[in-house]
Every structure is written in C-alpha cells, then in structure tokens.
User: Which sequence fits this backbone?
C-alpha cells in the first residue's frame, strides 16, 4: 500500500470493531471448488443475496459462493483490511469509504470486466468522481442506485389539480396552494439527524457544483461561498413542514406521509418500503427537487447505492467475474430492483417501480448528479451540523463552522490533493 493512501484509510479504521473470522480469498476448498466470498453492506437485502447464493451454488460445479450481509459490514470490512484478511468481492456504496479504499490500493482494477460495457455511463462518471485524486483504472462496478427528490401523493395532486413544479419559485407557489387548502405541504422527521441530509442533497445538486468538495480541497473556493444559496433555501422549506419537525423521527414522517398527513415528502426512493408498509395502497410518485431558478438546470440526485469491487488480494479473478456475471444477469438484477425499489445501474429493459415515473427521464438520459454527502468524512457529522443549523437558523455561523470542520477533519486529504496538483501542474489527469 502507498503511504498516503494507508494514512487516509487509517482515519476511517481507527474505531472499527472486532472482525469475524472467515476463509481466505479465492482459496480452494477440500472438494476442489474455488471459494469466492462476498461481504456486502446492505442487511435489508440479505434475503435476496441468500437466494442468489443458493441459486449460484446449485448451478455451478467449480465455484462455491458465500455471501454475508452483516448489520455492521463496514466496521467488519475495515477491521479485516487492517488484518489483511480480504474477501474476494465487497459490496459497498459509492461514498467516501470507497474513495479511501481506492486510495489505499485495496481494490483491483476491473476495467477488463466484460460487463462494464453495459453499465450506465452516468454512474461510471460518478464512480470516477469519487476518487480523491485521479487514478488509472476502474475499481467498482455499479449495481443499483437510489434517487432522492420529492415523493408525492399522486391521488391528492390529481384531486386538487396541483401541477408538478420545475423551478424553485414554482415549488414555493405550489406549497402556498397546498397550505391554502389546509394541507401540510411537507413532512419532516428531523429528530433522526441523518434525515436532515435528504433535502440538502437533493437541492445541492442543482445549486452547487458537483465537484464542490474537490474545489475546496484544491483551495479554489470555500463552502461559505458555494453553500450560501443552498443553506438559505433550505430554511425556506421549513415553513412548509410541521411545527417542531425535530420532535418527529424518520418513522414518524414515513407514517404521517403514508396516512395522507402531507402532500409531499423530501426523501429518497429508499423510504418507499417503509411508507408502503404503513399504507400499501398509497399511490406514490416522485419528481426531481426543483431547487434551481431555471428548469434547464435540473438534475436528478442519484448515486451508487450498491456496487461490487474485487479486492486486489483475490486469487482467482476469473472466478470472481463468473460470480459477477451471475449477479448482473438481467433476471437477477430485476429481482433486486423489485425487492428493494432500486434503480439499475445497468442499461437494459428493466421494469422500475411506478413511484419512480417522475424521475425516469433523468435516469434514462444519464442526467444525474451524486449526493454531496458522499464526499463528506463521517467524522465531520454533517447531518448533526445541519440539524443544529435548522434549529438555530444562523446561516453565517453554520457556513463558518462547515468550513472550519472541513479543514479539521479533511486535512490529510487536502494535503494529498494539493501535493498531487503541484506535481501535475495543477491539472487533474486520468
């Protein structure tokens, strides 16, 4: 491992819990089969992956597949990496952890994987943008994505004749019309701090450059400049939600929206299973958060919810690719889409949930921009910063704290990025 990468990685590993003991990478079992192990980080999809494991093993004589879906997968993975005990394949999201793993040279270049040609270019671009500094090769195969924006009650909209907004002014006008009918426009569940990120991310993709964090790391700008409009518009949304939104949890908000207590909900597609568990008959659709002043500047907030990486320590890459071929087979990917209301990262004739109809044109065209928080170090606790901001409503203090905390928790990465820029004449290379 390279020194700088290892240093960055250690920042994320210092608090990892004890790992579980497992077989080594790509090893052969007593019956001569090649052992391939996957550790994936989405426990809510454990049942799906159990079926995949069983079906693969029933149809392959030369490879034995083991898939684990622990609740604390990232802590387990980080601890195993410290021990140099690597699974053959890891299933992770496209966020800062992936960035650290690439920089630490834990992952193998998968640009030679034949299935890569079928992956939506928009998600490959997102994966590339996550690299702390430009790196030769491709290190993740995007599997599924989620999308964040605004969920809405389709029956309620049709009953009142409300139109889907395409600009910020149209959104505020719509909220006024809904309020005039004695209906709550939005429901918020800000007691759970992570939910504060949902509207923030959905607005940020239209109001801030997609590479804002990279520009800050290069010393070209700061968050006080880039996030001011975003911060001010976020406060405007509060007046259209419930009084005291910090008293309500994520479950409270999902339940309230499911029961028709609000017309809209600023959350991602990942919330729909929770909502429908309360009211299976709710007619949900979605639309892109119209944060910009011009409809031409709209983009969908979408990122890699799950992708697969082959570790550099995998002893049998050919067998790993055979497993991936099975996972990416259209029929298996469709089963995951149906199970998790997910967005496929693979191009093809897939059937998506009707509650994604309003976002479909953006998905098909590749007009997507990644979540800003995928670039935030977890130690910075941006969700808690946002919650405090929404309570205190002091924009200057919030932005100042954001900049100060970024410099504090990101200093090693900033140093690495600026060293790279200096060595390469200030130009990013790929």
Assistant:
């Amino acid at each position: 491992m390279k020194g700088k990468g290892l240093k960055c990685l250690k920042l994320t590993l210092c608090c990892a819990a004890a790992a579980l003991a497992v077989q080594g990478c790509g090893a052969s079992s007593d019956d001569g089969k090649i052992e391939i192990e996957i550790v994936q980080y989405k426990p809510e999809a454990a049942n799906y992956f159990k079926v995949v494991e069983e079906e693969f093993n029933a149809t392959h004589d030369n490879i034995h597949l083991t898939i684990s879906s622990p609740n604390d997968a990232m802590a387990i993975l980080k601890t195993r990496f410290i021990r140099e005990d690597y699974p053959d394949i890891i299933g992770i999201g496209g966020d800062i952890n992936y960035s650290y793993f690439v920089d630490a040279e834990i992952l193998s270049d998968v640009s030679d994987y034949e299935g890569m040609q079928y992956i939506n270019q928009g998600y490959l671009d997102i994966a590339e943008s996550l690299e702390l500094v430009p790196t030769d090769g491709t290190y993740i195969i995007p599997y599924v994505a989620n999308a964040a924006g605004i969920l809405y009650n389709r029956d309620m909209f049709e009953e009142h004749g409300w139109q889907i907004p395409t600009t910020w002014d149209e959104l505020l006008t719509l909220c006024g019309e809904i309020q005039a009918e004695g209906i709550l426009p939005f429901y918020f569940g800000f007691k759970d701090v992570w939910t504060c990120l949902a509207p923030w991310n959905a607005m940020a993709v239209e109001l801030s450059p997609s590479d804002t964090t990279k520009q800050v790391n290069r010393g070209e700008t700061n968050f006080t400049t880039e996030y001011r409009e975003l911060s001010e518009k976020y406060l405007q949304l509060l007046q259209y939600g419930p009084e005291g939104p910090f008293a309500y949890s994520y479950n409270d908000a999902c339940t309230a929206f499911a029961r028709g207590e609000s017309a809209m909900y600023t959350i991602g597609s990942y919330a729909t299973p929770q909502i429908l568990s309360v009211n299976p008959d709710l007619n949900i659709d979605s639309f892109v958060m119209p944060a910009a002043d011009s409809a031409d500047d709209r983009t969908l907030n979408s990122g890699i919810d799950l992708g697969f990486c082959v570790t550099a320590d995998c002893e049998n890459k050919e067998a790993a690719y055979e497993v991936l071929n099975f996972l990416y087979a259209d029929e298996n990917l469709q089963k995951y889409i149906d199970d998790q209301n997910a967005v496929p990262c693979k191009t093809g004739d897939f059937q998506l949930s009707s509650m994604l109809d309003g976002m479909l044109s953006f998905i098909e065209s590749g007009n997507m921009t990644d979540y800003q928080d995928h670039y935030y170090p977890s130690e910075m606790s941006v969700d808690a910063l946002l919650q405090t901001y929404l309570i205190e409503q002091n924009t200057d203090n919030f932005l100042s704290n954001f900049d100060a905390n970024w410099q504090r928790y990101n200093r090693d990465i900033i140093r690495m990025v600026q060293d790279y820029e200096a060595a390469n004449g200030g130009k990013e290379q790929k």
